[in-house]
From TrEMBL, chains A, B, C:
PANTHER family documented for this protein: INTELECTIN, INTELECTIN-1A-RELATED
GO cellular component: extracellular space
InterPro entries: Fibrinogen-like_C (IPR036056), Fibrinogen_a/b/g_C_1 (IPR014716), Fibrinogen_a/b/g_C_dom (IPR002181)
Keywords: Calcium, Disulfide bond, Lectin, Metal-binding
Protein's name in the database: Fibrinogen C-terminal domain-containing protein
Gene Ontology molecular functions: metal ion binding; oligosaccharide binding
Organism: Salmo trutta (Brown trout)
Domain Fibrinogen C-terminal: 23-73
């Protein structure tokens, strides 16, 4: 098979979707938004991006939701709700529940990366876009574990995005937002020291269905239709993201994920990426327990 | 040094073995078999492959055994037989021996990847070929730990392959085979619910030498000359692969590797990538204990 | 944007620093020294290198210190001094303090790799250059945790290099040096069986400031102005590197980092990447305790 690669190659992009013969020419495209705007790529799929420092990585681009151009930067996956801050709990602590380690793994606010895009619903995922991309909005998909990427959109149990361009106020991405609002035990009190809550627009689901995913006991203290950041619980433990809701009380570990390294109540029962989502049994959706669907879905985080 | 890269580049392949100056042009070659068939590459070594979804990865191709074209997709490595389902036991559980986590890490049947080809005898290895390649047969090499890849063939203590094209019956690779036969505690009983046993052709070793690698107590319940999948033990714990043998009894944890997340007997003594290979002492080859050679070799898994 | 890539491309190198449009043409450049010598690259930053076996990786090149051409091959990072050989302690043991696992993770002398260059002060880092590059000298930077690479030089608390070309005597890199001097519990006695100590030239700091970084109790048994390898303590535990000092006693765990899998004294208090640097409190710099600066900086290792 002959390939002449001299000449005009301006039409080439970073698309490697079911690629046939292609030269691996990387343009310095930093985000899915850039790929869409510059090269008019309109198909959801895997793309190679390059950070401002030249690091190349592969991730998933949602090119269709609300104008497209959404870059998958992370996924929060619970591999074992019975493992309390064990191996795999990268978004809280992998060294147990420990007051001497209040920040835990610290992955909400560092440059560590882990996982792969194809395994983003099999395990945690975090790529350099998380800290490199200068973004305005976020979108979130809750996708059942072990779903291959080409089915994510179809299989998702909830999908939404922001339109307020809120990330401009917080440094342009979660790396900077969580520097301003550290995900750390004992840095503040519930409600008064919480991070921001941003209204969302639903792409699948609504305020009611969102609240139904979390335990009945949570519904009196949440308002649907938001994404909230760095919510603190009654015992001053920090969580990272409350997906689909705004907290109006202090039991945030029942509806917010990720966190620092220490959760005092019922030590260590709240410690882990999906915090206390099984407080009253696995997937029972009674008391504080989330539904089985919520418990068994990975939370995919996108920037635009 | 000048390089003109216009013109006919059909002779370029994915070979990066002791490469001098080369352009990194990736053809969408999915497997070592494809590299051999299409481009006539005849040398064992490291090659870059691309999955059907465009993920690029590097692995080892065995281009010489029985016609060549074998892709290394995984290695099972025991870093510490005394660590019972600790960090590093990716093919069973890294969260201890736990009846609440019957599937354990689940890496036999998910899209997670880990390790590198150069470290495949220093640590576990699993690349996207494991779930992406559509294969017919498997080959297995037992190679002493810490052997560099260019010595694997020479240093191996056992090598064999299948010729029955059995993977066609099970979805084309182990990802699909282990979906059909989950590596999970308590899904079935020993013998009656075991996965398939496939006859093998030896490239180094024979039925007798195979049985000698495992403990004397195992030899009455194994038949040499097979590779077996998802063998279950007396207490309903699942193992993943019995290398070189077919089980005819229920003490499979003494001659089969990998598994789910719970092994009831002697809790937690059977839990770990090399299960109970040191049941009667480290490398003693008495009672149920495997030989030191077997215990200290990584198990390399290939597809064609 | 048009790109003609036919013709003379000898001026292209592996520089991807704030890259605009560029083809990803990899030349088989093995080290930063080679990049500097062959292509005259004079800027510190991220570069892609290729091992002798064709493995491509990205790391940081220091092109300015003492003639430049230094390749970052590893970083030793302490994520939690209270975690005694827990997850993250890759340079000692992640399976606890265990006399049955005297070599621990073994990462000083194997081909495993982990981490990324951008996260080299957020977590441990080790790339294939560690075992692949044939080098003469080393340099070391102690850089505060969570510093982005473009600030490393500026933020470092200590920097030095060797000029003796000592690595020639030990196989050309640390992989070979640590094969000759295994980082393993119980292979020898303090002082008499220690590995080499090499005089250093300071780029930032001096012998006095070096000693001040470690606890007051250490200063009577160290001599500043050296880098030392495989120092053994009184209880026969092995450490890997004593940065900036030569041991003249047996309490090396208070000023040397990394190690094997077992440290008898105060079991498990000495076990971890920064060993017993907090023996008398966190960052107190009293007794045996190192200063807070030393405790909270990652140790970056370079070859030339």
């Amino acid at each position: 098979m002959e390939h002449k690669i001299e000449g005009n190659i301006s039409h080439l992009t970073g698309v490697f979707m079911r690629g046939k013969c292609f030269p691996s020419i990387f343009f310095s495209t930093k985000s899915c938004k850039e790929v869409k705007d510059r090269y008019g790529q309109a198909e959801d799929g895997l793309y190679y991006l390059t950070t401002s420092t030249g690091v190349v990585y592969q991730t998933f681009c949602d090119m269709t939701t609300a104008g497209g151009g959404w870059t998958l930067v992370a996924s929060v996956h619970e591999d074992n709700i019975y493992g309390k801050c064990t191996v795999g709990d990268r978004w809280t602590s992998q060294q147990g529940n420990n007051a001497n380690w209040p920040k835990g793994e610290g992955n909400w606010a560092n440059r560590k990366t882990f996982g792969t895009v194809e395994a983003a619903t099999d395990d945690d995922f975090k790529n350099p876009g998380y800290y490199d991309i200068d973004a305005e909005d976020m979108s979130v998909w809750h996708v059942p574990n072990k779903t291959p990427f080409y089915h994510w959109n179809l299989a998702a149990i909830m999908r939404y995005h922001t339109e307020r361009r809120f990330l401009h106020l917080y440094g342009g991405n979660l790396y900077y937002l969580f520097h301003r609002y550290p995900v750390e035990y004992n840095v503040g009190a519930h409600l008064s020291d919480n991070g921001p809550s941003i209204p969302i627009v639903y792409d699948l689901g609504d305020k009611e269905s969102t609240k139904m995913f979390y335990g009945p006991n949570t519904r009196g203290e949440t308002e649907g239709g938001f994404i909230s950041f760095r919510a603190i619980n009654l015992e001053r433990a920090a969580t990272a993201i409350c997906s689909g809701v705004k907290p109006k009380g202090g039991e945030v570990d029942a509806y917010c994920i990720g966190g620092g390294g220490f959760f005092p109540q019922g030590n260590p029962l709240q410690c882990g990426d999906f915090t206390s989502f099984a407080w009253n049994g696995y997937g029972t959706n009674v008391g504080w327990s989330a539904s089985k669907q919520m418990l068994e879905s990975a939370v995919l985080l996108f920037y635009r």
